Amino acid sequence: MKRSNFLLVGLLAMFNVGAWGQNADKYLLIGTYTTKTSEGIYVYKFNTETGDFSPVSIAKGVKNPSFLAISPDKRFVYSVAEVNGGAVNSYSFDKNTGALTFINTQSAGGNGPCHVATDKKGKWVMVGNYGGGSLSILPVQADGSLGVATQTIQHEGKSVNAARQEKAHVHSINVAPNNVDVFVPDLGMDKIMTYTLDTKAGRLTPGNPAFTAATPGAGPRHFTFHPNGKWAYVINELDATMTSFEYKKGKLTPVQTVTTLPSGYTGRMWCADIHVSPDGKFLYGSNRAQ
User: Does domain 12-222 bear CATH number 3.40.47.10?
Assistant: First the structure.
């Protein structure tokens, strides 16, 4: 968790400019921390062929919209408000103008929300609270607004790093391609918790198994699936590693763990995000330390 001066990106999200067709121009949405000079959620137009980008709009008036999620139909955007007494906000998005329009806000059910995700149908929004060590699920209304949470789950536990793992710290929420299995890395507990999503009731129940243990002190953070739907990956913030898994029937089976750092590195270990290339050939992990 880091609150920086300006434009510390919580999420870079891209989709096509305009409603139809293939286009090299994409909209690039950037979540930030607003504790100093940043003003909110920034929208840019980005050309994937030239690398050029230009500002389009800013959604102002929200504190620390550090992470964003886009609805499956690209009509709505959801942001956390990463503060004590955290919240989650909904916006409509106009793909013709690139403007975000605030719709409403709801309680995140815990302090310091740091991650937000939607289910594959866009009916439910799930928010993870790093400070509170909890996660909540909220219904999406027809107009994209959020209803009051149908459930908040509190994690309990800690691990070996007394400075960072003194209690539960939910760090991301990840819905599997089947829209049933939900994986929640908890940095404080050194566990990837597993839940089963009831898409009709908006409820999460413990999966089978209920969790996959990480190496003590690893600090699992962000998580992603391979395009083939058979493999999954987690980046571990505290020991700067990435672990691959075989994913099958709600279960993660560890396959390999590799470091993100070059040989001889002695600086801070402080990993952040993880992504698989669209063609499934490359896995990317970031490390914020130098």
Answer: no
| Tokens describing residue 77 | 């955007």
Task: State the Cα–Cα distance between residues 64 and 71, nearest whole angstrom.
Answer: 20
For residue 175, what are the β-bridge partners? 182
How deeply is 279 buried, as exposed, middle or buried, from its count of CB atoms within 10 A (0-12, 13-18, 19+)? exposed
Fill in the DSSP letter of residue 141. P
78 and 136 in contact (C-beta within 8 Å)? no
Residue 186: helix, strand or coil by DSSP? strand
* Whole-prediction pTM: 0.93
Question: What pairs with residue 115 in β-bridges?
Answer: 128
Are the CB atoms for 189 and 165 separated by under 8 Å?
A: yes
199 contacts 190 by C-beta, under 8 angstroms: no
For residue 230, the cross-strand partners are none
3-state secondary structure 107-146: ECCCCCEEEEEECCCCCEEEEEECCCCEEEEEEECCCCCE
Q: Is 42 helix (H, G, I), strand (E, B) or coil?
A: strand
What integer pLDDT is reported at residue 222 of this predicted model? 98
pLDDT digits (tens, 9 = 90+) for 35-50: 999 999 999 999 989 9
Query: Where exactly are the structural domains of the chain?
Result: 12-222
Q: Which of 188, 3, 204, 172 is nearest to 84 (CA)?
A: 3
